[in-house]
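can u do me a favor
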């Protein structure tokens, strides 16, 4: 059974930083592409960032480029999202996801990030 558990979300002031973590169970974590998505009420869940199994390839949505950094520690089955220079529009529920092949199959329960102005 694969489980993804996010942590690190909280209330922060604009301009501040947060580091989200996603702890994964599963013996083949180091073979999965991992990603972070976010969703606000009434809107679709959008991808924020992703990282290949080796960490050698990353993707960032234009809205977070230069501010967010994704990383992973395969020895600890954990993926991180460092978020700097946070803006009120970054407020959302952030979800961790795993893609064993080409589809996002496994999802965490989400962690709330709220950025106050």
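np, heres the sequence
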């Amino acid at each position: 059974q694969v489980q993804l558990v996010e942590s690190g979300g909280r209330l922060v002031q604009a301009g501040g930083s947060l580091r989200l973590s996603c702890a994964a169970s599963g013996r083949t974590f180091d073979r999965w592409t991992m990603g972070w998505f976010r969703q606000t009420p009434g809107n679709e869940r959008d991808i924020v960032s992703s990282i290949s199994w080796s960490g050698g390839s990353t993707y960032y949505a234009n809205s977070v480029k230069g501010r967010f950094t994704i990383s992973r520690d395969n020895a600890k089955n954990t993926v991180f999202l460092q978020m700097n220079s946070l803006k009120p529009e970054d407020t959302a529920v952030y979800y961790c996801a795993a893609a064993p092949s080409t589809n996002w199959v496994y999802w965490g329960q989400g962690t709330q990030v709220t950025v106050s102005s």
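Residues 103 and 109 are 18 Å apart (CA to CA). hope that helps!!
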